[in-house]
Amino acid sequence: MHIHAYEKLWLAASLLLILFLLGSVTYGAVGPGVAMVTDSEPAIDAGALDEDERFSEPRVEQVGENEYEAYVLAFQFGFQPDPIVVPENSTVTFYVTSRDVIHGFEVVGTNANTMVVPGEVSEITVETDGPAEYGIVCNEYCGAGHHAMEGKLEVVPQSEFDERTNGGDGE
To answer: Which of 77, 88, 103, 144 is most buried, by the most CB atoms less than 10 A from its CB?
Structure first.
């Protein structure tokens, strides 16, 4: 059986593309700098978030020099606190959970993006630069009002952060 030269060329090119696809998928799954969702946080009772010390009062708190933790609650159809206010030039670890259905938590314009599942705590760390304002959207369909589910992340100067968190204005 004779195989034409062009057929051999197309066959070789097809095999190379298949190998490239398999290689890129493998690299994407285990490559350096790629972190998969972990279950490092223990499961919580989504129906009793008022009793959980982390989520009974969603907030941002300082845990070290230029290190903060933000406890965020997603619900149909919003986020709490809103807005989330953090100081500039800091590292913020977001702990996000849901009290009702699956939601998404995406800080628009950044690579901060995670799925939020009831009974689970999603953890994502972000390093902030100068003052800015970012939108937060739910990117998992969560019901009829999904299209309007949004929040705000405000990165502010340290003095403004201190004033807003200690001055009684609250979040």
So the answer is: 103
